[in-house]
User: Which sequence fits this backbone?
């Protein structure tokens, strides 16, 4: 499944910013972090059925925190 166009555009913008700001050795760390967040998103941040109640970082997530406060 492809991400929505807005999400893809945001990802592309972030990638361009990071390419100008980080060294190659830092890039490897970012690649690894991206992979971890991608897996996290696949498990918890589902577009139609997010699993915020099970998410280990809900308190750091704007969307998850808003659900918790409502």
Assistant:
């Amino acid at each position: 499944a492809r991400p929505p166009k807005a999400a893809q555009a945001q990802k592309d913008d972030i990638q361009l910013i990071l390419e100008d700001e980080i060294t190659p050795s830092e890039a490897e760390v970012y690649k690894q972090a991206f992979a971890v967040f991608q897996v996290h998103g696949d498990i918890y941040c589902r577009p139609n059925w997010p699993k915020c109640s099970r998410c280990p970082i809900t308190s750091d997530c704007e969307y998850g925190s808003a659900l918790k406060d409502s």
Observations:
- The longest helix spans residues 24-44.
- The helical segments are 5-21, 24-44, 62-69.
- The chain is about 65% helix and 0% strand.
